[in-house]
Amino acid sequence: VYRESVVSAAKEQNGYKNALLLTDSETGKFISVTLWETEADMTAGEASGYYKEQLGKLGAFFAGPPTMEHYEVSVQD
After folding, report:
1. Does 21 score more than 90 pLDDT?
2. What single string gives the DSSP state of each residue in 9-59?
3. How far apart are CA 46 and CA 53, in angstroms?
4. What is the rounded distance in angstroms from the CA atom of residue 24 to the CA atom of residue 42?
5. Axis-axis angle for helices 50-58, 39-47 (nearest 10)
6. Please, is 54 exposed, middle or buried when counting C-beta atoms within 10 Å of its C-beta (0-12, 13-18, 19+)?
7. Whole-prediction pTM
8. pLDDT tens-digit profile of 50-73?
9. Beta-carbon neighbour count of residue 10 at 10 Å?
10. Residue 30 near residue 63, CB atoms below 8 Å
């Protein structure tokens, strides 16, 4: 679902750079990380409804409400 639907939709958004899905197979927890060219590109996706639409695709996998946090890339190699 993540690769075929969420990442596919992200690639259609302006400024999308990359997506990562980090998982812990022991706990079942996962973290989705997306990288954007600019902060404006990221917030435009949130404002357009894109973010909520993607959460809907993953809703069956959530044990509770998801949280969103924003970070700035300090080092990328």
Report:
1. yes
2. HHTTSTTEEEEEEEEETTTTEEEEEEEESSHHHHHHHHHTTHHHHHHHHHG
3. 10
4. 26
5. 70
6. buried
7. 0.81
8. 888 888 888 788 888 888 899 999
9. 21
10. no
